[in-house]
Specification:
single chain, 278 residues, mainly beta, Immunoglobulin-like, 3 domains, 11-stranded mixed beta sheet, 4-stranded parallel beta sheet, 1 helix, 24 strands
């Protein structure tokens, strides 16, 4: 590559870690390797990551796109999947998958699912920012037995029960597959951050909501209980609950009138997809 106007260094080569090596003219008819600055790196169209200059070309990951542990492992990756790493065999990634990792065999990440880690055998990831473990035998159905972790969130300002949202994204919920039973264990922390109601900023409550949500031929029901863990300040009306709407599952949250509360909830699902009508 030639020198760009205004730069005294230029890229020389890219190593197997996708680090961009730069060089400069030493004035004696030869070149010497140099460490580039962030401005040098960005000026030639590369990216600066952890104090190193990296190759990203047409949205190709600097760890390669995709990176597969070995060739011919029957992994199916759509051409529009980006920043993907796969270790294993017979896995499948689809349209719009981004920043995903699979370790294992016969796993699937659905379309447009991002920032997700899947491991084990015959697991299916359906939501962004989730961690999914499949524990299935080769003859089991896809996701017949799997364990998932995801985050819900909500900001409340009144005393009505409201739905928390998957990844704190409005109207985003986990969809329970048909003829599936799931044990869930939700751990919630709520902190007051404002408002004019009784109490003070910094009041907090913590809760565990746990139980079973089941989809019987498209109809959901939930059976759960709440443990109040530790609290500080004025929190007597604050609550969590297990809720369903259509095929959606969520943790309901209730705060207090004129009290601004941030809710953060981690939910773990242990799942059985029965393969038969319930």
């Amino acid at each position: 590559m030639d020198f760009k106007i205004g730069y005294k260094v230029k890229p020389k080569e890219i190593n197997n870690l996708n680090d961009v090596i730069f060089e400069e003219f030493n004035g004696e008819g030869s070149f010497s390797d140099v460490i580039p600055t962030e401005d040098d790196c960005n000026g030639y169209g590369f990216i600066w990551v952890d104090d190193k200059c990296k190759l990203v070309n047409n949205n190709i990951s600097f760890i390669s796109n995709p990176q597969i542990s070995k060739p011919n492992n029957n992994t199916e990756i759509h051409k529009n999947a980006n920043y993907i790493s796969v270790i294993g065999v017979n896995n499948k990634l689809s349209i719009g998958n981004t920043n995903d990792l699979i370790v294992g065999s016969d796993n699937i990440i659905l379309d447009e699912v991002r920032n997700t880690i899947v491991s084990g055998t015959k697991a299916e990831a359906t939501t962004d920012n989730s961690i999914v473990l499949g524990g299935n035998a080769p003859d089991d159905n896809l996701a017949e037995r799997q364990f998932s972790t995801m985050m819900y969130g909500r900001y409340t300002t009144n005393g009505s029960t409201q739905s928390s949202y998957l990844n704190n994204t409005t109207s985003n919920f986990y969809q329970v597959p048909t003829d599936t039973a799931m044990y869930f264990h939700a751990e919630a922390i709520a902190v007051r951050v404002g408002g004019t109601g009784t109490g003070n900023i910094g009041d907090y409550g913590s809760y565990v909501q746990r139980g079973v949500v089941i989809n019987k031929s498209g109809v959901l029901s939930v059976n759960s209980e709440r443990d109040n863990i530790r609290h500080s300040g004025t929190t007597s009306t604050w609550r969590t609950s297990g809720n369903v709407s259509g095929t959606s599952f969520y943790i309901g949250v209730r705060g207090a009138t004129n009290v601004n509360i941030e809710w953060s909830i981690s939910i773990r699902f242990t799942e059985i997809r029965t393969g038969v009508a319930l």
